[in-house]
Design brief:
Chain lengths: 812, 215
C-alpha cells in the first residue's frame, strides 16, 4: 500500500527539484533531516532494488532532496515543506521520536509524515510542536502513534489543516483545540479518544471538514457545533454519542456530507435536516432514532446517498413519496416498511445500492427492480413471495443479490449464469425447489453462494472451473443426494453440505481444497472410515462430521490438523480407542485464532452461516465470526472404547469436551484438571470407574458437568467451580459418589478424601473446606454466659426433590 | 485503563440495544448487558458477550437451558470490580449465581429476591456491604447461600428461616450483628457458618431476647 504513495511523493518532489539554486539549505535543517533519516530509514537490503526517497538525501543542499522544499526567495533558503508520507516502507516501523528531530526546522509550514508506521507517543520535548510556529499543515495520520495528544500541539495557532487520523491516540480531546482557530480541516478519525466532544470545538468557525469518527467519544453532540457554518463535511460516526441530533442541524447549510452513523443517538430526525440543500450523503444508520422519516428528506435534490438502516424509524405509508433526490445508495433497512416494495423506487434510475432488508415487505419482486443499473440488491428478512424474476440475472452490473429469509418459491432461473458479475448470491431460507442450473458456473466472479434451507434437490452438481474465486458455499438443509460433491474450485474456504441426503464415503478429492477452513457435512448418510488423508487438510479449523454413518477408528493422523479447534465426530459408528495423538491438536491448545472472514470484504453486514454444534447440552449456532474463540471436541454417541488418554489434558484451550455415550473405561485422567478454560465437560454414559480426580478443583471455568451413568466412586472434589457444580443430576447413576454436591456424606476414612494441603497446592482455597471440617455436635459458648447446643443434623433426610433431568436438545 | 474498558463495554451494550430492535424480547441478554456495563473487567472474561447475538446462550460464563433461558451465571474468580444491580433480578430462570471471589462492592440488591428459581447464590469473598435483604426469603428453591467474607452489616433477616430447602449457608467473616435464628434450616447450620462476625451474639432465645439484640 505504501509504495504507490512513495511514487506520488517522489513525483511531487521531482517537480519541486527545479527550484534549487546555488546556495544550500541551512545546516541546522540539513542536520535535522539527516537525524530524522537515521531514525526512520530501514536497514539497507542488498537484494531490495526498490527506490527510497532517501537515496537522494546525499547531496550537500537539502533543498534538492526529494520531499524537501525550501523557500528559495529567502537568502537562507529555509526548509518550509516536508512531504515525507510513506517513507518508511512496510513492514518496517520506526520510533515516533523521529518526529522530534524535525522540531529544529522552525520555518516549517507544511509537514506530512503520514503512513510511516511511526510507533510510540507523539514526542513532546519542552516546546515540542509549539516550536513550529509557522506550521499551517500537519499530517500525522496512519501511523502507530499512541498516548494522548500533547498540549503543545494546541499552540500551533497558524494551523489550517490537522490530520491525526488512523492512530491509537487515547484520552480526552482537550478544549484547548479551540486555540487552533484558523483550522479548516480537523481529522482525528480512527483513534481511541474517549470522553465528550468539547463544546469549544464550536469556536473553530473556519472549519470545512470535521471528522471525529471511529473513536469512543461519548455524551451529547455539542450544540456549539451549529456555529460551524462553513462546514461541508461532518463525520461523528462510529462513536458512543447519546442524546439526540441537534434540532437546528439545518443551520449547517453548507453541509454536503453528514455521518452520525453507529452511535446511540435517540429521538427523532430533526425536520430542519431538510434545510441542508447541499447534502449529498446522509448516514444515520445504526442508531436508536425513532419516529417518522421526514418525507422532506426525499426532496433534497443533491442527495445521492441515504442510509437510515437499523434504527427504529418508520416510513409513513400514507404519504405519497415523489422523491426529487436521485439516489445511488439507499438503505431503508429495518424502517418498518410494509406492503409491497414501494413503487416510487421505480423512478430511481441511478440506484446502484438498495437495501430494504429487515422490513415486512410482501408481494413479489417487481420487474422494474430488475433493471440493468442496480449493483447491489439486498432484500433479506422480508415476506416476499413468488418466483425470483429471471430478468434479474440478465444484468451485467449485479454484484450482490441477497434475498435470504423470504418466502420465495419456484425454481432458480436457468439463466442465472448470465449475471456474470455476481460476487455474493444469497438465497437461503426460502422455498426454492428444483435443481441448481448448470449455468451458475458461468458466474466467474462468484465468491459466496448460499442456497441453504430450501427444497433444492438433485444428485449432479455443477462443476465450477478451477479458476473460480468461490470461497464460501452453503447448500445445507436441502434435499440433495448422491455422492458428496467436491467441484467448488481450489479457493473454497467454507463448505457446508449439512442436512442433506448425501451417501457414500468421504471423497478423496476433498484434499484438493487447500484453503478450506470450515467443512461441515453433518447430518448426512456418509459411510466408510474417516480416511488417513484427512490429516492433509491442513488449513481446516472446523470439521463437523456429526450424525453420519462413519465407522472404524478415529485416525491418529487427525492430529496433523494443527489449526483444528472445533471437531465434531458425534453420532457416528466410530469404534476403537481415542488416539493419544489427539493431545497434539495444537489448535485446541491455544485459542483464539483469527482467520479469513469473507464478510470482512464487504461494507454491509453479511450474515453468513451458522456453525452449529452442541454447546452446553444444546445445539447452538456458534457463528462464523465467533467460532474462532471456541475449542470444542465432541466424540459423543459412538462406540469408542478403552481408556481416555491422559494426553487430552494438553488441550488447554478446550472450552467443551464431550465423550458421552461411548464405551470408555478406566479412570478420568488427572490431567483433565489442567483444562482451565473448559466450560462444559460431558463424560456421561460410559463405563468410567475410579474417583473424580481432585484436580477438578482447578477447573475454574466449568459451568456444565455431566458424569452421570458411569461407575465412579469416592468423594466429589471441592474447590472453585466444583463447589458450584451442585446439580445432583451431574453425578447420578454412579457407583457410590459422595460429597456435599449430592448431599451424601463421605465416610471419614474414605481413601479418596482430598486433604486441605492438596487443595492449597493447587492454589485454590475451598469453600467446601467449611463443609469438610464440620465439627459434629459442637457445643458453642456464647457471650451471654449460657450456651445452646446446636446439633448439626446436616444430612437429615434430604433428597433432592427434582428428578435428574437431561437437557432437551433443540435449536435456538 | 479500567475506566476506558468500562466505557467500551457500556458502548457495546448500548449498541446492542440500538442495533437490534428485533431483539427487544431478549430481556435476559439486555439484563446481562446492563450488568456488564457496571463492571470493570481487566481480564476480559466478558469479551465474548457479543450483544448482536440473538440470545446470550453462547456467551462464555453464561449457561442456558434448552429453551434459551439463562440458568447459570458463572463469574467466580474473575478479577471483576463493580456493583450488583437490580437488573440481575430480571434473570427470572437463573438457578446459579456464582460471583464469588471478585471485588463486587455496594449492596446486595433486593431484586435478587425475584430469582425464584435460584438454587445457589455464591457471593462469597467480595466487598459487599449493607444488609442482607429480607427479600432473599422469597428464594424458595435456594439450597446454597454463601455470602461469607464480605462486609455485610445488620442482622440476619428472620424471614430466612422459611427457606426450607437451604442446605448450606455461610455468613462467616462479615460484620453482622444480633442473634442467629434457630428455626427452620438454621437448626442445621454449623457455628462455622457464622464465625468472625464480631457483633453476632449467638442463637436467639425465643421469647427471651429480641432477635436484634446487640445490633
Amino acid at each position: 500500500m505504501a509504495y504507490p504513495l512513495i511514487l506520488i511523493a517522489l513525483l511531487v518532489s521531482l517537480s519541486l527539484l527545479h527550484h534549487s539554486r546555488t546556495l544550500s539549505c541551512p545546516s541546522t535543517h540539513k542536520q535535522a533531516l539527516l537525524h530524522f533519516k537515521s531514525i526512520v530509514a530501514p536497514p539497507p537490503q542488498p537484494t531490495n532494488d526498490s527506490i527510497s526517497i532517501f537515496d537522494s538525501w546525499i547531496t550537500n543542499n537539502c533543498c534538492n532532496w526529494q520531499g524537501v522544499t525550501c523557500n528559495l526567495a529567502l537568502p537562507s533558503k529555509p526548509v518550509t515543506h516536508l512531504s515525507l508520507s510513506a517513507v518508511v516502507p512496510l513492514p518496517y516501523t520506526a520510533p515516533s521520536t523521529a518526529i522530534a528531530s524535525l522540531f529544529a526546522i522552525h520555518t516549517l509550514r507544511f509537514l506530512d509524515i503520514s503512513e510511516n508506521s511511526l510507533e510510540g507517543e507523539i514526542p513532546s520535548p519542552s516546546q515540542g510542536f509549539a516550536s513550529l510556529v509557522n506550521l499551517t499543515y500537519l499530517d500525522l495520520s496512519s501511523n502507530l502513534l499512541n498516548g494522548t495528544i500533547p498540549s503543545n500541539l494546541f499552540q500551533l495557532r497558524n494551523l489550517k489543516q490537522l490530520n491525526l487520523g488512523g492512530n491509537s491516540l487515547t484520552g480526552f480531546l482537550s478544549s484547548a483545540i479551540a486555540n487552533l482557530f484558523k483550522l479548516q480541516v480537523l481529522s482525528i478519525e480512527d483513534n481511541s479518544l474517549t470522553g465528550p466532544i468539547p463544546a469549544e470545538i464550536g469556536n473553530l468557525i473556519q472549519l470545512k471538514l470535521l471528522s471525529l469518527s471511529q473513536n469512543h467519544f461519548s455524551g451529547e453532540i455539542p450544540e456549539s457545533i451549529l456555529r460551524l457554518a462553513r462546514l461541508q463535511a461532518l463525520d461523528l460516526g462510529n462513536n458512543s454519542l447519546t442524546s439526540s441530533i441537534p434540532d437546528q442541524i439545518g443551520a449547517l447549510s453548507n453541509l454536503s456530507f453528514l455521518s452520525l452513523k453507529m452511535n446511540q443517538l435517540s429521538g427523532e430526525i430533526p425536520v430542519s435536516i431538510s434545510d441542508l440543500k447541499q447534502l449529498q450523503s446522509l448516514e444515520l444508520n445504526r442508531n436508536s432514532l425513532t419516529g417518522l422519516i421526514p418525507s422532506s428528506l426525499f426532496h433534497l435534490k443533491m442527495l445521492k446517498k441515504l442510509n437510515l438502516g437499523a434504527n427504529k424509524l418508520l416510513l409513513n405509508h400514507s404519504l405519497e413519496i415523489h422523491p426529487r433526490s436521485s439516489f445511488s445508495f439507499l438503505s431503508l433497512r429495518a424502517c418498518g416498511l410494509t406492503g409491497s416494495i414501494p413503487g416510487w423506487l421505480s423512478d430511481q434510475k441511478q440506484l446502484d445500492f438498495l437495501d430494504l432488508s429487515e422490513n415486512q415487505l410482501t408481494g413479489s419482486i417487481p420487474l422494474w427492480l430488475t433493471g440493468p443499473q442496480i449493483g447491489s440488491l439486498i432484500m433479506s428478512d422480508n415476506n416476499l413471495t413468488g418466483q425470483i424474476p429471471s430478468n434479474l440475472f440478465n444484468s451485467r452490473n449485479l454484484s450482490v443479490l441477497d434475498l435470504s429469509r423470504n418466502g420465495l418459491s419456484g425454481h432458480l432461473p436457468v439463466n442465472i449464469g448470465n449475471a456474470s458479475a455476481i460476487m455474493i448470491l444469497l438465497l437461503g431460507s426460502n422455498n426454492l425447489s428444483g435443481y441448481i442450473p448448470p449455468s451458475i458456473t458461468n458466474i466467474t466472479r462468484l465468491l459466496a453462494l448460499d442456497l441453504s434451507e430450501n427444497q433444492l434437490s438433485g444428485d449432479s452438481f455443477p462443476q465450477f472451473r478451477t479458476d473460480t474465486y468461490l470461497a464460501y458455499v452453503d447448500l445445507s438443509e436441502n434435499s440433495f443426494y448422491g455422492e458428496v460433491p467436491v467441484g467448488f474450485g481450489p479457493q473454497i474456504r467454507s463448505l457446508s453440505l449439512a442436512s442433506n441426503k448425501f451417501t457414500g464415503p468421504l471423497p478423496a478429492k476433498l484434499i484438493t481444497m487447500n484453503f478450506i477452513e470450515n467443512l461441515d457435512l453433518h447430518d448426512n448418510y456418509i459411510t466408510g472410515a474417516i480416511p488417513h488423508w484427512i490429516g492433509q487438510m491442513s488449513a481446516i479449523y472446523v470439521l463437523n462430521l456429526r450424525d453420519n454413518r462413519l465407522e472404524g477408528a478415529v485416525p491418529f493422523a487427525i492430529s496433523n490438523l494443527s489449526k483444528l479447534h472445533v471437531l465434531d465426530l458425534s453420532g457416528n459408528n466410530l469404534t476403537g480407542t481415542v488416539p493419544a495423538e489427539m493431545g497434539q491438536l495444537t489448535g485446541m491448545v491455544d485459542t483464539p485464532i483469527t482467520y479469513f472472514s469473507i464478510s470482512d470484504l464487504f461494507t454491509f453486514s453479511l450474515d453468513l452461516s451458522d456453525i452449529t454444534t452442541y454447546w452446553k447440552g444444546a445445539l447452538r449456532d456458534l457463528g462464523y465470526q465467533r467460532v474462532s474463540t471456541y475449542a470444542n471436541l465432541d466424540l459423543s454417541r459412538n462406540q469408542v472404547s478403552g481408556r481416555i488418554p491422559s494426553e487430552l489434558g494438553n488441550l488447554k484451550g478446550l472450552k467443551s469436551l464431550n465423550m458421552s455415550y461411548n464405551m470408555l473405561e478406566g479412570e478420568i485422567p488427572a490431567t483433565f484438571g489442567l483444562l482451565h478454560k473448559l466450560e462444559s465437560l460431558d463424560l456421561s454414559h460410559n463405563k468410567i470407574n475410579g474417583s473424580i480426580p481432585p484436580s477438578f478443583g482447578s477447573l475454574y471455568q466449568l459451568t456444565t458437568l455431566d458424569l452421570s451413568y458411569n461407575r465412579l466412586t469416592g468423594r466429589i472434589p471441592v474447590g472453585g467451580q466444583m463447589s458450584a457444580m451442585t446439580d445432583p443430576s451431574s453425578y447420578a447413576n454412579n457407583s457410590g459418589l459422595c460429597g456435599f454436591q449430592v448431599q451424601v456424606r463421605c465416610e471419614p476414612d474414605d481413601p479418596s478424601e482430598v486433604s486441605e494441603g492438596e487443595l492449597d497446592a493447587q492454589g485454590e482455597e475451598s469453600i467446601g473446606d467449611h463443609w469438610l471440617n464440620l465439627k459434629w455436635g459442637v457445643v458453642y459458648g456464647f457471650l451471654l454466659g449460657f450456651s445452646v447446643a446446636v446439633v448439626v443434623s446436616y444430612f437429615a433426610g434430604f433428597l433432592y426433590p427434582n428428578a435428574p433431568k437431561r437437557y432437551l436438545r433443540s435449536l435456538r | 485503563m479500567a475506566s476506558s474498558s468500562l466505557l467500551i463495554s457500556l458502548a457495546s451494550c448500548l449498541l446492542f440495544l440500538a442495533v437490534s430492535p428485533a431483539l427487544a424480547s431478549n430481556s435476559e441478554g439486555e439484563a446481562l448487558c446492563a450488568f456488564k456495563s457496571r463492571l470493570s473487567d481487566p481480564n476480559n472474561v466478558l469479551q465474548s458477550w457479543d450483544q448482536s447475538l440473538v440470545n446470550p446462550c453462547t456467551w462464555f460464563h453464561v449457561t442456558c437451558d434448552s429453551q434459551n433461558r439463562v440458568i447459570r451465571l458463572d463469574l467466580g474468580n474473575s478479577n471483576i470490580t463493580g456493583t450488583l444491580g437490580p437488573e440481575l433480578g430480571r434473570l427470572q430462570h437463573l438457578q446459579y449465581l456464582e460471583l464469588y471471589r471478585n471485588s463486587f462492592m455496594g449492596k446486595i440488591p433486593e431484586e435478587l429476591g425475584n430469582l425464584k428459581n435460584l438454587v445457589s447464590m455464591d457471593l462469597y469473598e467480595n466487598q459487599l456491604e449493607g444488609e442482607i435483604p429480607k427479600s432473599l426469603s422469597k428464594l424458595k428453591s435456594l439450597r446454597f447461600m454463601r455470602l461469607n467474607n464480605n462486609k455485610l452489616t445488620g442482622s440476619i433477616p428472620r424471614e430466612l428461616v422459611t427457606l426450607s430447602n437451604l442446605k448450606v449457608l455461610d455468613f462467616s467473616n462479615n460484620d453482622l450483628c444480633g442473634t442467629i435464628p434457630v428455626d427452620g434450616p438454621f437448626s442445621t447450620f454449623p457455628p462455622e457458618s457464622f464465625e468472625n462476625n464480631k457483633r453476632l451474639n449467638g442463637p436467639e432465645l425465643l421469647g427471651l431476647a429480641s432477635y436484634d439484640f446487640g445490633c
